[in-house]
Amino acid sequence: MQTYDTIVVGAGYAGLTAARELLKAGKKVILLEARDRVGGRVHTQHFKDGSYVDLGAAWVGPTQDKIYALAKEFGVQTFPTYDEGKSTLYFNNKLKHYKGIIPPLPIGALLSLDMAIKRMNKLSKTIDLQNPWNTPNAAYYDSMTLASWMDKQMSFKTAKVMLKLAAEAIWAADPNEISMLHALFYTKSGGDLDMLMNVKAGAQEERLVGGASQPALRMADTFKEHIRLSSIVRSISQDSNLVTVKGDGFELTASKVIVALPPVLAGRIQYTPLMPANREQLTQRMPMGNVWKTYAIYDKPFWREEGLNGLSATNDGYVTVTFDNSPKDAGKGIMMGFVLGNQAKAFAQLTPQERKESVLNTFARFYGEKARHPVQYLDHSWAEEEFTRGCYAGLMPTGAWTSVGKALREPVGKIHWAGTETSDVWNGYIEGAIRSGERVAREILAD
Amino acid sequence: MDDASNEFARVFTAINKVVFSHTLTSVEDTNTRIVRTDLQEEILKLKQQEGGNISIGGVDLPSQLIALGLVDEYHFVVQPVIAGAGRRLLDETILLKNSDLKLVETKVFKSGCVALRYMKQ
Q1: Which CATH number does the domain housing residue A412 bear?
Q2: Which residues does chain B have within 8 Å of residue A112's beta carbon, measured at their own beta carbons?
Q3: A16 & A111 share domain
C-alpha cells in the first residue's frame, strides 16, 4: 500500500524546497531528515548572549535570486559583509595592508594573475552548463586538474600561490584535486571568478540577519507536520509499483523518492535493485571538499578601529583567509578564519589546544596582539559530520564529468536526485540547492 | 625568492619597467615605476635617456603611441592560428594618413611562428 506520493530524503535547502513545492501542488509528502534539525550544510549556532555564528554556508550575493526571495518571503533581512578599510596580506614574511582588491605584489605576478583569471573567465563561457560533457574540448579540460592548467599557463610563482589561495577558498579543495572542466563549469555556474571571489558585487556581498539557517527554519515551520527529524534512511528499494524507504524504526512507501543529499551520502544508502553502474561509479568519484571554519569572538571588532576590514590572506599556516563575521550592529567582534583543502587535512591532526593556538597566532599576525585574547574560540570540521562528511560540496576530479557526469541528475526508476551538486546555476551554494529542489519538484510533477 | 617559473618571467622581472595605470598607485618592484598621467611626455623623456630599446605591448597603449608618432619599430609575431574572436591588434589605431614601413628582419620558428621586424620609413 502506498503511503505517500513522494518521500524526500534530506532536509537541507534542496529537500525543504522540493517538499514545499510538492505540498503546494497538493501532493502527499514526507520529508525525512537524519539530524535533529533542518538546514543540512547550513547551520547557525546561537550563544546565550544573543550572538551567533554560521558554522556552514553564510553569504549571499547578487544573482542569487532564489535565496533572496526566500529570505524576503520569511522576513529575514540581509546586511552587507563588512569591507570598509584596508585588507591584509601576509606573504614572504611581510605584513601589508592595502586598499581595494589588488594585492601589493610585484607587477609581473599581478599581470600573470589577472591574465589567468581573465582566461579562466573566458574559457568558462564555452561551458555547456546543463551538459558539461558536451562542452567543446570537454575531454581535454577534464583530463587536467586546475593545478596543472595553472602550471602551464602562469609564469610567476607568486601569481600561482595567490590563485591557489583563491581556488581553495572557492572550492575548499586543493587545485590539484579538481578537474579543470569542473573548475570552469563551477565558474560559469556562479557567473565568473570575480563573482565567486569578491565581497562587493560578489558571492560574499551580504549575510543574513540571525544566520543563514533562518529562512530554512522558518520555511520548515510552515509544514513541520510533514517533516520527520532524527530519521536516518538506510535503504531504498523499488519495484514496478512503489518505492520503500527503510530506516531505524520506520518503513514508508511512496510512488516517488527524492534523494536530496550530496552524492557521497546518496551512495551510502543501500539500494534494491542496485544502482546502475554509472550512478554507482559517480557516487564513488565525487568527494566532498574539506573545510574548517574557525571563530574567535571578541567584545568588539577592534580591527575596524585600526582601519582594517578583516579580510586577510596568507599562505603561511593553517588559516589562509579571514572575514569579519561580526553581527550587523557590531555588538560583538567576530573574526572567522577558513582552514581549507590540504590545510584542513593537516589541521585535523592537531589537538584542540594546538588548533586554537595556531588560529589565534594567525589572527594576531593580521590584527595585532589583541587578537590573542578572544572571549570565546570555536572551530568546526564538516568532514567529521556524519550526515555531511565534508564541505562545501561534492567535487568532480579529472575524468568524472565526461564519463559518468550524466548520472548526476538522471532519475533511476522512481528515485530522483536533488542537492546543490545537481544544480547548473550557483552549483555548491545555497542558491543552487534551492534551484535543485525546484527542478526536482518540476520533474516529479511533470511525470 | 626567485618568482619566475620560466624564461619570460625571468626577463620580465629583471628589466626596468614603467607602468601606465588608472588603478595602481604603487608597486612592490624596485625597478618599476607607476605613471598615471601624460603618456607623450613620459615616453619623450625616456627616449632622451641613455639605454636600449623601449618595448611596449598590448592594444591600447601602442595605439596611442602610434597615433602620437612615437613608435619607431614594429615587432610582429604571426602565430599559426586564426583567433576568430577577441581584440584586434590595430583596431584602435587611427591615423590620418598611412604610415609606411620597411621590412628589416624576418625569422621563421619551427613552431610555425614568423617574427617580422619593420621600421617606420
Answers
A1: 3.50.50.60
A2: 9
A3: no
Strands A4-9 and A250-259, bridge-based pairing: parallel
Contact B3 A109 (CB under 8 A): yes
Q: Which of A274-283, B10-19, B22-31 has the lowest mean pLDDT?
A: B22-31
User: Is the whole model's pTM more than 0.90, yes or no?
Assistant: yes
Residues of chain A with pLDDT under 50: none
Give the residue numbers spanning the domain of A233. Answer: 4-41+213-286+396-446
Q: Which residues of B touch A158 (CB under 8 A)?
A: 3
Per-window interface: B 97-116 vs A, CB < 8 A = none
Tell me whether 0.85 is exceeded by the ipTM.
no
Question: Using CA atoms, how far apart are residues A217 and B18, in angstroms rounded to an integer?
Answer: 56
pLDDT in tens, A62-89: 999 999 999 999 999 999 999 999 999 9
- Into how many domains does chain A fold? 3
Span B8-27, average pLDDT: 89
- Measured in angstroms, the CA of A111 and the nearest CA of chain B are apart by 11
**In this structure, what is the dihedral angle of CA atoms A11, A12, A14, A16, given to the nearest 10 degrees?**
40
Question: Which of A165, A197, A229 is at the close of a domain?
Answer: A197
Choose from A149, A155, A161 for mutation: most chain B CBs within 10 A. A155
A251-309 residue pLDDT tens: 999 999 999 999 999 999 999 999 999 999 999 999 999 999 999 999 999 999 999 99
Question: Same domain, yes or no, for A379 and A407?
Answer: no
Chains A & B: contacts with CB separation below 8 Å:
49
What CATH number corresponds to the domain at position A128?
A: 1.10.405.10
Whether residues A155 and B23 touch (CB distance < 8 A) is answered with no
Which residues between 11 and 50 in chain B have a beta carbon less than 8 angstroms from any beta carbon of chain A? 12-13, 17, 19, 23-24, 26-29, 32
Partners of B12 on chain A (C-beta within 8 Å) are 108, 155
pLDDT of residue B22: 84
Q: Which CATH class is domain B58-120?
A: alpha beta
Q: Say whether B5 and A108 touch across the interface (CB within 8 A).
A: no
Specify whether A250 is located in the same domain as A322. no
pLDDT at position B14: 92
Whole-number pLDDT of residue A2: 67
